[in-house]
Write a structure and sequence with these properties.
The chain has nine helices and ten strands. It is α/β, with parallel strands linked by helices and about 250 residues long. It has an eight-stranded mixed β-barrel with strand order 2-3-4-5-6-7-8-9. Helix 2 (about 65-80) runs parallel beside helix 4. The two termini are about 30 Å apart. The model is unreliable at about 1-10 and about 10-15 (pLDDT under 50).
């Protein structure tokens, strides 16, 4: 899941618990323009601990509050760091009970720090199975109405398959790391990934390849027409800070 500069952490309290956290930002690189196009906000512990140190404390009782706090934190921290690109925020579909009500804190935070709504992308995560497709379609419709873009995360893994893409109008598909890993010498993965990339291209959906770590993987993806990539080959997530274009090797 996908954040504040003052204090560098946020804390959810209630029912006798507290969850401190902050955010790291990982760039998504535009290979055509040779610049960072997007920063994905990723949850971290208050001292930069791994995401699981926080996510393991999320329960059914605090999931909604946590989802809301992450959105606000991502926007506030991004604004405080001077982010002028697209910001990508993960959200839990099953934590959204009413799209119009649940977006209010996001809208208020963006207005408070003067962050443009049309620079925000919400990534649908699959930490949980999507049990109510009409409900998710309602969420996507409401988010797009406000000018947000919507991305489908981990495409090709878990519950995010072609049937989901057929039912939902999304702007971006993030190709799962399991398909990207070793795509240069794993024929089965390459065939599946290239097929998914072609489908997205024909639907006019942007593709982001996640987890790119090797130049050989990048070459296969680039040859397939993938424009946007994310992974350690370019940059690791930076806690409470933003990587600069000048720190990225766009031709590794």
């Amino acid at each position: 899941m996908s954040h504040s500069k003052s204090g560098c952490h946020s804390c959810l309290e209630g029912k006798g618990f507290a969850i401190p956290f902050t955010m790291a930002f990982q760039p998504i690189v535009d290979l055509h323009e040779r610049r960072i196009s997007t920063y994905e906000a990723l949850v971290r512990g208050p001292e930069g601990q791994p995401a699981m140190s926080v996510l393991s404390q999320v329960t059914a009782d605090n999931r909604y509050a946590f989802d809301q706090a992450c959105r606000v934190k991502a926007i506030e921290l991004a604004a405080s760091l001077g982010l002028d690109r697209r910001l990508s925020i993960n959200f839990l579909p099953n934590a959204v009970y009413d799209p119009k009500a649940c977006i209010r804190a996001t809208l208020a935070a963006a207005e408070r720090v003067n962050f443009p709504l049309d620079l925000i992308t919400f990534e649908i995560t699959e930490d949980e199975r999507i049990t109510d497709t009409p409900h998710l379609l309602g969420i996507i419709k409401e988010y797009r109405r406000h000018g947000f873009r919507v991305a489908l995360d981990d495409f090709g893994a878990g519950y995010a398959g072609l049937n989901v893409l057929a039912e939902m109008i999304v702007d971006v598909v993030k190709l799962d790391i399991a398909l990207v890993r070793n795509i240069d010498h794993d024929q089965r993965r390459r065939t599946i990934a290239l097929g998914m990339i072609k489908v997205c291209q024909e639907l006019g959906v942007d593709v982001v390849a996640e987890g790119v770590e090797r130049t050989q993987e990048l070459k296969v993806l680039r040859d397939a027409g993938v424009r946007y990539v994310q992974g350690f080959l370019f940059s690791r997530p930076a806690v409470n800070s933003l990587a600069l274009d000048s720190s990225i090797n766009f031709s590794p």
